[in-house]
Design brief:
Shape: elongated
Largest sheet: 9 strands, mixed
Distance between the termini: 32 Å
Strand content: 25-35%
Number of strands: 16
Number of domains: 2
Structural class: alpha+beta
């Protein structure tokens, strides 16, 4: 089963790093930042397993640019919904990551979750709600037809590429959304355009946008076959932290965090989805 942790994590890593750096700088004039302080990244996705929680240490202010925060594997993490408590456990083989092992927790639109985390004598808390799903999702095409590259001659220009798939959804309030496209074939065949680009991951993750549409071009995909496109509505906690990435570098405002007692973000997302296929032009004609 495909989950969306990669999409969120890729977009937020730099924001969390900035959040930690600003916090360190803010404290540097008074006292060193608490070495026991930790960074939380916790994400819930409506209808998907709870499997994307990480806890790491805080890097010292003078750390080398290549330094990586130490994962924390023995934190105590609990989700609370309507008084019911759900204890997360460490994920085997992935230090610092946690998941819920049971089958009795389904993340639903409208749910309100509290988060409790404790480690090294520090206790942290957060709250988030699961937003409504995007509405009105439509695709302009249900297929992308790949031209024949077997006789491709660079001196004559590349073959004509198909027009991209346009995904549209309702967004009257200009809320942040992001698009994730997964190839869902069990053994997908690589596209000839991918061989040229030497990029082979069968997943496309687009950055968050406040628009009501997004293009998916053939050159952004990697494999033939069925593709699952999801549009995620971004919760306010994520939106605030993401906006901290793109703020003017002269603006020294601290990126927001909704973790009380620690650093990071706890947020939730909901998606609508649709499918399209990538096929050879001869197969689709």
């Amino acid at each position: 089963m495909f989950t969306s942790m990669g999409a969120v994590r890729a977009s937020l890593l730099s924001a969390v790093a900035a959040l930690v750096m600003v916090a360190c700088e803010a404290d540097s004039g008074f006292a060193p930042i608490d070495p026991e302080l930790f960074v939380v990244q916790g994400y819930l996705f409506a209808g998907e397993p709870v499997s994307d929680f990480t806890v790491t240490s805080v890097l010292p202010i003078d750390s080398d640019s290549s330094a990586v925060p130490e994962p924390i594997w023995d934190a105590r993490i609990t989700l609370i919904r309507d008084g019911a408590r759900f204890d997360l456990v460490p994920t085997s083989g992935e230090p610092g990551r946690y998941h819920y092992p049971g089958m009795d927790l389904t993340v639903r639109v409208g749910d309100l979750f509290d988060l409790e985390i404790s480690h090294g004598g520090i206790e942290a808390f957060a709250r988030t709600s699961v937003p409504e799903r995007p509405t009105g999702l439509q695709l302009s095409l249900d297929s992308l037809l790949v031209p024949d590259f077997s006789t491709f001659d660079p001196r004559q220009g590349r073959p004509d590429l198909p027009e991209p798939v346009l995904a549209r959804w309702r967004n009257p309030d200009s809320e942040l959304h992001f698009v994730v496209v997964d190839n869902v074939e069990p053994d997908p065949e690589i596209l000839p355009t991918t061989e040229i680009a030497t990029r082979i991951a069968p997943r496309l993750i687009q950055p968050p946008t406040a628009n009501d549409s997004s293009f998916v071009a053939l050159l952004s995909l990697t494999h033939f076959g069925d593709h699952w496109l999801r549009v995620y509505r971004v919760n306010q906690e994520y939106a605030g932290l993401y906006e901290g990435i793109v703020q003017d570098s002269r603006d020294l405002n601290e990126p927001p965090s909704n973790i009380v007692g620690a650093l990071g973000v706890f947020s939730a997302f909901s998606a609508d989805s649709a499918f399209f296929v990538v096929a050879r032009a001869t197969d689709g004609s």
